[in-house]
Amino acid sequence: MSELLDIENIEVFYGPSQALFGVSLKVGEGEVVALMGRNGMGKTTTIRTLCRMSKQKAGRIEFAGCDIGSMPSHKVAQLGVGLVPEGRRCFANLTVEENLVAAARAGEWSLARVYELFPRLEERQGQMANTLSGGEQQMLAIGRALMTNPKLLVLDEATEGLAPVIREEIWRAVRELKATGQSILIVDKTLSELLPIADHCVILERGRTAWTGTPDALTPELADRYLGV
Amino acid sequence: MTAALFFEQLLNGLQFGVTLFLMAAGLTLVFGVMGLINLAHGSLYMVGAFACAAVAAATGSFWLGLVASIVAAAFAGALIEMTVIRRLYNRDHLDQVLATFALILIFSEGCRFIFGSFPLFLDVPAILAGPITLPGGLPYPIYRLSIIVVGGLVALGLYLLIAKTRLGIRIRAGEADREMIAALGVDIRTLYTIVFALGAGLAGFAGALVGALQSVQVGMGEPVLILAFVVIVIGGIGSIKGALIASILVGIVDTLGRVSLPSLFGLFMDPSAANSIGSSLSSMLIYVLMAVVLIFKPEGLVSQNG
Amino acid sequence: GGAKIGMITTLSGGGSGLGIDVRDGFMLAINQSDNKDVEVVIEDDARKPELAVQIADKMIQSEKVDILTGIIWSNLAMAVIPSATAQGKFYLSPNAGPSPLAGKGCHPNYFNVAWQNDNLHEAMGAYANSVGYKNSYILAPNYPAGKDALTGYKRFYEGDLAGEVYTKLGATDYAAEIAQIRASGADSVFFFLPGGMGIAFMKQYAASGVDIPVLGPAFSFDQGILGAVGDAALGVKNSSQWSKDLDNEANKAFVASFQEAYGRLPSLYASQGFDTANLILSALEGADVKDADAFRAALKVAEFDSVRGDFRFGNNQHPIQNIYVREVVKEGDVLTNKIVGLGLEQHQDAYAQECGM
Amino acid sequence: MTNPILEIKNLNKSFGALKATDDVSITLNAGEIHALIGPNGAGKSTLIKQICGGLSSDSGSVIFNGQDLAGLDVAERAQLGLGRTFQISSVIMEFSALRNVMLAVQANAGTSYRFFKNVRTDKKLVDRAMAILARVELEGRADVSAAELSHGERRQLEIALALALEPKAFLLDEPMAGMGPEGSKRLISFLDGLRKEAPILLIEHDMDAVFSLADRISVLVYGRVVASGTVDEIRNNPAVREAYLGETA
Amino acid sequence: MASLSRETLLNIFLTIGMLALPFVATAIDEPFYITLATRVAILGLAGVGLNLALGTGGLVSFGHAAFFGLGGYAAGILASHALNYTPIMESPFLIEGTNQMLIIWLVAIIVSGIGAYLIGLLSLRTSGVYFIMITLAFAQMIYYFAISWPAYGGEDGLSIYVRNAFPGVNTLDPQGFYFICFALLMAGIWLSATLKNSRFGAALQSARQNEERLSAVGVKPFNIKLTAFVISGMMTGLAGALFADLNRFVSPSMLSWHMSGEIMILVILGGVGRLYGPLAGAIIYIIFEFIFGGMTEHWQFFLGLVLLGVVLFARGGVIGLIAGRARHD
Ligand SMILES: Nc1ncnc2c1ncn2[C@@H]1O[C@H](COP(=O)(O)OP(=O)(O)OP(=O)(O)O)[C@@H](O)[C@H]1O
Ligand SMILES: Nc1ncnc2c1ncn2[C@@H]1O[C@H](COP(=O)(O)OP(=O)(O)OP(=O)(O)O)[C@@H](O)[C@H]1O
Ligand SMILES: [Mg+2]
Ligand SMILES: [Mg+2]
User: Fold this and answer.
1) Which residue from B93, B291, B299 is facing E137, i.e. has the nearest CB?
2) Dihedral, D127, D131, D133, D138 alpha carbons, nearest 10
3) What stretches pass through the bilayer (chain B) (predicted)?
4) What angle do CA B280, B286, B287 make, to 5 degrees?
5) Most buried in the list B122, D150, D241, E327, measured by CB within 10 Å?
6) What is the DSSP string of B7-20?
7) Where are the beta strands (DSSP E) in chain A?
8) Could you tell me the domains of chain A?
9) Cβ of D93 less than 6 Å from ligand 1
10) Which has more pLDDT, A180 or C240?
């Protein structure tokens, strides 16, 4: 299986304070990789760096065979990284539909398909994003990323704030996506859902990759040590 | 006031309003949609007027001058966007105010260096000169009527651009969250340069059109700037429709205010005092209007979120 | 003798054309003079009163000038002159002549070499009578100089007023006023709208098709500005104490040498700057500037060849002079003015008797 | 039956054609955790905003400790003892975690118009705030600015801010969101104890938390309370299962 | 604190420099430098006032010239009546002019405070750019009123002729007046530092950053902001009264939007929210004006370039450039 994403030993700073001290992770073509760790361990920072929203001081990032370590954000997205960011970040002053089409690129995912996945969004299509309920915003953020038809979908706590039924929907969608060969990098706290679909797990601790392996290899001891469960 | 005169003044108000809109159009685009306070908008307006006057004087053609005004201002706009403005999007409004204020100084003095301190000549083109008789026997300058038409077209064009095209959606998305729209694959940097140049071009275009009616001189952009801001704010930032409505409202209120306030006060006080108070009040009128609007609708007439 | 002169004038921003003309006229005279002991320091006030005050302080305290001059605008003049003269400096005004300084606030060290603000307007009022206008529509911006202007016009004008309007300072759209004028049944329009306001008004007036004759002071029809107004100004009568076609030797020499030195026709302001410098030079010939009384006396006799012909000071040290009526004409391609009559002869301003000197 | 601390009677709120809350009546009694669940967009947060005064109600009333809150604004209601957390963290970004809490402490004391004494050296404020941070296990991050906290830590800070107000009722809007699995577990036990201080109206999509904590559950769907009862009743309510729970339960 | 931060050192340096300046100026026989320094101190004080609203409270007022001008006119009107021995009003009760600075200051502070209260009451309903514009609008209203109001000179302004008096100090002596202004500047800086660090300051900073949160903890942001706005207006008004005395002249240009802009620029130039920012900004601005103004008539071009350089390359203003980015607290 060829590597789609290869992050090697990146170090990242926020101003003077260092957040990542050497994170490495790989996502293969068609793979689902779970990125795990306690609060504040650097999951989001890793993702921000992948999407070029933060710059690394050291280390290498390759995506689809290109060194993206010095590319601007939009180039990386155009190469096929679709981000569902932490905290939703919908465009507040745009309507639901405008949010979805703003950065859409041609491909399998169309407005119709997103609406099929999230009928709620269709109902609210003319509403300003900042007046949506929290869960609705979350759906919008996922739909928006799908509309860019990414090679690698990056989900940072994408099920936060969603009702159980919807969460199930999303997991179903993730499983479906996986079945169609979509590569996914995913951060989520619901291990019971996450582990069954992940091909690989990467656990961060204090800004370092502390453990990598298959979900089966994640023993209760390891889970307790790194995740506190 | 006779009915005919009242009608004429109403028309004048409308025309003044549309002129204001033309002056504000580029600013609405940059300020309302990109979220950048560009005090140098007036300078770009001036650049357009000077370019038009210079080219018209050299070639004898107002129309070539008009083209030159757009090109020169858009070019100047793109230039400052790439060298200065670009660094300001992530800054707060204060840095934008200071930087673009600095640009005003640079533009004004630069312009004076090139063109000298004396006002330039720019007149309306021959085919639009003089009055036309409106139905009802009212003579009205053709050029002013043309401005109403042009202003309307600009408003329509801008509205379609912002509200109906993907370009518009992306610009607005960029205003909400630049980092995010870039992370979704939109080259927001280049897009902003284009939009800024477009806004600058509009400013230059307005400078040329209005310059032909008023005067072309260093510093002509400053009063315009405040007026334009007033209009945009009354209208509701980011709304082209709001800006148009507000311009016309301001134009009409101002025009009717200045012709009627002195005589209104004359009804109950002696004429010279009435004249003085009436005209003082009328020069404050648009600010009063703005304050009243904002007190009752703190987000302008056409608020974006509703 | 020698002297150090501080010139505070408007050289940048809007309205800088006036300051540049005053400076150029002034420096032309200085350069033509044999007196090489005169030093001139020039600074730009950018038309801001606070800045003018600061520069005045600097020139007085730091540069230690003997004489100040150069201010264009009344409000700047009011900011600077009272305190400068109170500190014992001489001030010679090459342009502004606010009424307080001509009347109660007159000062032995303050000389006005241009005019009292009302003068040119008064002349236009007198002229309106002489050509038989009976119903004038008059307008000016709503600030003191504008009010002075209309007061000045009304002081001499004897007919009725079809309307009296104060516009917003800095306004550039006059459609409403022009419509009122058309409807008013006036037989003449008098306006005082300096700078860009006047250009805009004239252009819009010409395009409106209203053909009531227009009168105004020289400010809106002077050389620097006529080019921008264009043919819209042709035929307009305006009042001035100077014109380039005034027939005297000093003026002919001035016009020729100014054109040679700067490559453009001199304006009213240039002539005022030129006269101011020559007045100072003439006084320096006989008196030492450090001897204030002697120097003051030497200024007061005004023994120099003014480009406006006869020139003398009244009790308040403002000029008593002829004010002419000019008409805008075209000479070849160039718009300029031609004297067509005399508005007021040997005219003194209305505030002189309030002055205690 | 005890007198409820918070009593919501027939609240309504429409946004245009949409009825965000539709004749909602619920109560919160002393010592209890009353969970409010429902699909996304059901109107839960809207209800909280109405209770806290951030949104004006079209009709209905909110009675808190026997007092009708009509006409009071957000700040006045907070002073009366309504302590809320936001679904999307809302903290003072440039302040350290400690100063965020100090702000809440001073606000609770009603001393925001003291102009001269330096807060940094104000032992009363600092000590009290530190104690509260310790309760949410953020004392180690006291001097880190809120902007630099991770998402989950900010959620903890939200709770600290509510605690500092010593409220008479807590309104918590999805406190579990953004907490990792471990954090969620700890928060559950924390809230379990908290109900003794003041009752909690808890909005949550995390069913583990809801089922283990709630004394009562109300289910909001399209702005209406469609079911209300004990954990078991709700868990086994087929309508709720279909509209909301799915197979979770 | 064991070692002083660079910002503190810089502040101390500025204070000492300002203190020493008049003696140096006298020694090298350049009395004008004292006048310049007085101007720096006054504009600095106006800036300190604005900085409280703008830096600490996030209230970007583009209308502070209104308070500057109100203070100036309060001084000018009182002094001119004293000069002419005419009462300001006779009925219902007699108010006479005065040339005592202390009384004038008090009146200036009260008048500008009332102005700020009224303007704030209406403007604080809006926020962001709307706030910027509505404060501008109110200032413009006052400006146009002053221009066309003939009683006190209209656009021509009002001359005071002699500087007002202060017990025990010869105000006509530049040094004497300078130290009065400098002392007030220092008092202003002290007050704003104290306010910023107080409970009120904490609430104000929260109002700037997150009103929703502030009201959720039970403090009304509107009242906090209004209080800050009034204090800010008062300080700027006091500076206006001093400015009138410095120039012995007041005119509507003190009320113009250029003046608002200038005060704002001082603050940004020096560093928004920095204690000494306005002072540093005023020093730089005045020095540029002074040096370039005499050099070339195109000096504003260079001023523009310098300002641009500062915004683009010195984030946090000059103080930020020298002392590093603001720390979070
Ligand atoms: N903007 C920032 N400035 C400074 N430090 C930051 C910033 N954002 C995050 N950090 C710090 O970087 C570290 C990693 O944070 P990150 O957000 O990547 O964690 P996370 O694993 O995503 O946590 P969570 O599960 O809470 O979202 C944390 O210690 C955090 O305090
Ligand atoms: N200002 C508004 N204008 C229009 N619609 C609004 C506004 N505020 C909220 N809504 C709508 O009202 C409904 C209820 O929203 P609310 O935020 O209360 O939902 P919620 O129950 O908290 O959902 P979630 O669990 O997803 O947070 C949603 O459909 C939302 O889009
Ligand atoms: Mg995270
Ligand atoms: Mg919610």
Assistant:
1) B291
2) 100
3) 16-37, 44-64, 70-89, 101-122, 142-162, 190-213, 225-252, 273-296
4) 85
5) B122
6) HHHHHHHHHHHHHH
7) 3-14, 17-28, 32-36, 56-63, 66-67, 81-84, 152-156, 183-187, 200-205, 208-213
8) 1-80+185-229 (3.40.50.300)
9) no
10) C240
Return the residue of A nearest to D89 by Cα.
A87
CA distance C179 to C205: 10
What residues does each domain of chain E span? Answer: 2-323
Read off the tokens for D53: 């005064």
Query: Strand pairing of C312-313 and C237-240?
Result: unpaired
Q: Is any ligand 1 atom within 6 A of the Cβ of residue D149?
A: yes
A87 lines ligand 1 (CB under 6 A): no
In A, residues 134-173, which contact B (CB 8 Å cutoff)? 144-145, 148
Q: Which fold has domain D1-81+167-249?
A: Rossmann fold (3.40.50)
Confirm if B62 and B212 have CB atoms less than 8 A apart. Answer: yes
- Residue nearest atom 6 of ligand 2, based on CA coordinates: A131
What ligand 1 atom has the least distance to the C-alpha of D155?
A: 26
Q: Which residue type is seen at B202? A: L
**In degrees rounded to 5, what are phi and psi of residue D5?**
-75, -45
Say which CATH class B3-296 falls into: mainly alpha
Q: Is D36 in the pocket of ligand 2 (CB under 6 A)?
A: no
**Tens digits of pLDDT across chain E (329 residues):** 446 788 888 889 999 999 999 999 989 888 889 999 999 999 999 999 999 999 899 999 999 999 999 999 999 999 988 877 788 777 777 778 888 999 999 999 999 999 999 999 989 988 888 898 889 889 999 998 898 787 888 888 888 877 888 888 888 888 999 999 999 999 999 999 999 999 999 999 999 999 999 999 999 999 999 999 999 999 999 999 999 999 888 999 999 988 998 999 899 889 888 899 999 999 998 888 888 777 777 888 888 898 888 888 877 788 888 877 654 44
In chain C, which ranges are continuous DSSP H helix? 16-32, 49-58, 74-86, 99-102, 119-130, 144-156, 175-184, 196-208, 223-229, 249-262, 268-286, 292-301
Q: Is B179 on the interface with E (CB under 8 A)?
A: no
Distances from the Cα of B27 to the Cα of B36, B298, D161, angstroms? 9, 20, 42
CB contact at 8 A, A88 and A137 = yes
Segments in chain B forming alpha helices (H) = 3-27, 41-59, 62-83, 93-115, 142-159, 166-176, 178-183, 188-213, 221-235, 240-266, 271-296
C127 within 8 A of C343, measured Cβ to Cβ: yes
The pair phi, psi for residue E253, each rounded to 5°, is -65, -20
Q: How far is residue C144's CA from residue E150's CA, in Å, rounded to a whole number? A: 7
pLDDT in tens, B211-255: 888 888 888 888 888 888 888 889 888 788 889 999 999 999 999
Are residues E54 and B104, on separate chains, in Cβ contact within 8 Å?
no
